[in-house]
C-alpha cells in the first residue's frame, strides 16, 4: 500500500469534510466515524461521494458504495487507492 498517497488523500478528504460541516479540521481525524463522530447525514454522505469522485477523477463501482467503505477518512482513502491503483 502506498502510504504517501494514503496520507495525501486523507489530508484532502479532511479538507473536503471540513468544508461540508461546521467542525474544525482538528476534530476530523483519519479514524473518525463520519456518521457517528462527525455527524454527516445521508445527504452529506452522497455529496461526499460526489465530491471525492470529482476531486480524484474516479468513479466508484456500485459494489464499493457501502457504509464500510465510507465509514472513515482512512477507509475512503484506501478505497481511492484501490480505484486509482496506488497499491
Summarize the model shown.
The chain has 87 residues and is mainly α. 52% of the residues lie in helices and 0% in strands. The mean pLDDT is 89.
Task: Describe the protein.
By secondary structure, the protein is an all-alpha fold. It has a single domain, classed as Non-ribosomal Peptide Synthetase Peptidyl Carrier Protein, Chain A (Orthogonal Bundle). It is built from three helices and no strands. The longest helix has 18 residues, at 3-20. It is globular and about 30 Å long.
Write the layout of secondary structure elements.
Layout: H1 3-20, H2 42-56, H3 73-84
| Shape verdict | globular
Question: Number of domains in the coordinates?
Answer: 1
Strand share of the residues? under 5%
> What summary fits the major beta sheet?
none
| N- and C-termini, Cα separation | 5 Å
Q: Quickly count the helices.
A: 3
By secondary-structure content and strand pairing, the structural class works out as mainly alpha
Helix content: 40-55%
Task: Please name the CATH topology.
Answer: Non-ribosomal Peptide Synthetase Peptidyl Carrier Protein, Chain A
- Order of SSEs, N→C? HHH
What's the rounded overall pLDDT mean?
89
- Per CATH, the architecture is Orthogonal Bundle
Low-confidence stretches at least 5 residues in length (pLDDT < 50)? none
User: Taking Cα atoms only, what radius of gyration do you get, to the nearest Å?
Assistant: 12 Å
CATH superfamily: ACP-like
The CATH C-level class name: Mainly Alpha
The strand count comes to: 0
